Amino acid sequence: MAEKNxxxxxxxxxxxxxxxxxxxxxxxxxxxxxxxxDKHSYFTYMTxxxxxxxxxxxxxxVQEDLEHLFYxxxxxxxxxxxxNGIDKDAKIVKTTHGDIDYEKLILAVGGQSNDFGTPGVKxxxxxxxxxxxxxxxxxxxxxxxxxxxxxLDPAKREQLLTIAVVGSGFTGAELMxxxxxxxxxxxxxxKLDESEIKLVLLEASPSILNMLKDRNLxxxxxKYMTDNGVxxxxxxxxxxxxxxxxxxxxNTTLPTKSLxxxxxxxxxxxxxxxxxKYGRGGRIEADDYMRATLENxxxxxxxxxxxxxxxxxxxxxxxVPQTVEGAESAARAAANNxxxxxxxxxxxxxxxxVSYHGFAVSIGSQYTVASLxxxxxxxxxxxxxxxxxNLFFYSQIRSMYSIFHYLMDEFFRTENGRxxxxxxxxxxxxxxxxxxxxxxxxxFWILAAVxxxxxxxxxxxxxxxxxxxxxxxxxxxxxxxxTWPLAVVSVILTVVAxxxxxxxxxxxxxxxxxxxxxxxxGRGFGLDFYVVPLLQKLFGGLWYGKAKSVYDELxx
Length: 556
What we know:
alpha/beta, FAD/NAD(P)-binding domain, 6-stranded mixed β-sheet, 17 helices, 39% helix, globular, transmembrane helix, flavoprotein, FAD, NDH-2, FAD/NAD-binding_dom
């Protein structure tokens, strides 16, 4: 049976969601291949780029290797390439790898920052809509604050220590929230008074976060930022940027070397000559079924649109927003209608597929404003809800690997107190200090098994299977081998001993000690230092495959 290709261009939120959906539904139909094309070999969690730019998390936190995401989806083929155009008549996607024929095609190539032609932004400013741009900001801020700390001229010093963000939408507000926290770290690092690092948020309109219907939430975000020393300038129309700073409509200026533009998003410019009808921001217009619209207003045959590439206005919910749920809803509709075209379901309009639960705008790691499921709230619980939204997306694309690492990076590996719990639950301490406790716990279980605990012997077992388990548990914990699972066994043994032989304060000590050594103490003079990375590599490779910088799986 001849193979048929369903090609998806773009591995963003919309593209990945569509690929996962189609892969699952077509699993038993071997004649169909899902080909996912992107110029990168990884998926970027775009809505977390501000955390990379401000050094809250490492770059790998927002990168999910496509092999990891799709290794178990055997009908998905990955291709790292750039798309140069589409031949609609021949049904071919033209790439740097060569021509690829398609039965169905989804365009989800994503967006880019829109500076609206403002002079000097690209030459002297920074934008935040890609991994590369976030890394540029990350490196620049660290370097420029260091230069400012060493500058003795007051005017130059102030210019170097001023960070300006243009645009108070979701991206601008979230980035400024991260800078509030990063400022504390940078001030300490370079021996500065925190107030010397000036944060300025520039907004052309009379208010911030203008996409929020509930202005009370926007007011709370405004107050939080101003209370934390952010200079918010409303009605500040930026007309240009040069090497000295920002130029406003009234010809006043703001001296700075750090201008980050977040004031707009548009479709990728390279799609502009693909022969479609384009709407606001250069996006491809689509009909109710997410079919791309041609220049003559007819729907393109077998071509669908999703993500930031899409321009569509729903009668009830309005324009599809450039958000994760907007991308997912369009991808869901497109995938569903492709399946219907292939005879595996019923067509659905966007209105039938749309699913908006709300939003959460994080102003740093410890404060968020949210409107979810009809409820408006802010602060700590809103921050937890924001993380819940991100985890929900990962659950939809069925990636437990991503969920685990997300939780570790956002809660347990955070530095400088930058998580909703202000760092209280971070495990970035020196695990070496728990090594003596680990050794003691291991010896305790061995001594319990051989009856060398004196009056405590009656609390445990010296014969039979349980005694053998005591020895194995103690030996493993003693040498730091598989410490975490054996600590769990230690807790279970203690609870069983408690229920069988009666309570003693020793039982509480053992339970708490077992929990304490779960913090990675097996890596402090223990074999887990060598064994755990080896097991992660071995079993991770079996389940998730091997990450690569370039994919070419068309012959898979």
